[in-house]
Amino acid sequence: MADRDHYYHQHDLARFGEINRGAPELAKKFFAWYGAVFAEGALSAREKSLIALAVAHAIQCPYCIDAYARDALEKGSNLEQMTEATHVAAAIRGGASLMHGVQMLNHVDELGM
Q1: Cα–Cα distance between 54 and 60 in angstroms, integer?
Q2: First-residue to last-residue Cα distance in the chain
Q3: pTM of the complete model beyond 0.70
Q4: Which residues contact 90 (CB under 8 A, 6 or more apart)?
Q5: Can you tell me the distance from the alpha carbon of 90 to that of 92, in angstroms, rounded to the nearest whole number?
Q6: What are the CA-CA distances from residue 81 to residues 36, 54, 60, 68, 75 (Å)?
Q7: Which of 33, 69, 74, 109 is the most buried (most CB within 10 A)?
Q8: How far apart are CA 80 and CA 59, in angstroms?
């Protein structure tokens, strides 16, 4: 095994297809579904790629960020669109963190502070 000084390695992204090794039938189903999800539909492939890029930032997946930054560019997105999508993800993630503050407020209210 190669010397690993961190968990994520750029070259691992190209190995994604190898997930079929342990369960080839499940991988086949996943990749068929995945392909269908990203096919042109009510949303264009470019729009789906921008959504994927935003979600990648929200879930903090470096492999997904690499894949969908490239994909968004290849599908015609520009830096402004990609940056705006990333800010949308950050706003949703930040809002979700703040919304969980209501739990804190519930405790404050229950304790009569």
Answers
A1: 10
A2: 56
A3: yes
A4: 57, 58
A5: 5
A6: 24, 10, 19, 13, 12
A7: 69
A8: 21
- For 6-31, write each residue's pLDDT tens digit: 778 888 888 988 989 999 999 999 99
Q: How confident is the model at residue 60 (pLDDT cuts 50, 70, 90)?
A: very high
Q: Tens digits of per-residue pLDDT, 73-84?
A: 999 999 999 999
Find tokens 């990749």 and name the residue.
Answer: 31
Q: Which pLDDT score is estimated for 8? A: 82
Residue 85's Cβ-count burial label (10 Å; 0-12, 13-18, 19+) is: buried
Contact 95/76 with Cβ under 8 angstroms? Answer: no
Contacts of 63 (CB under 8 A, 6+ apart): 8, 12, 13, 16
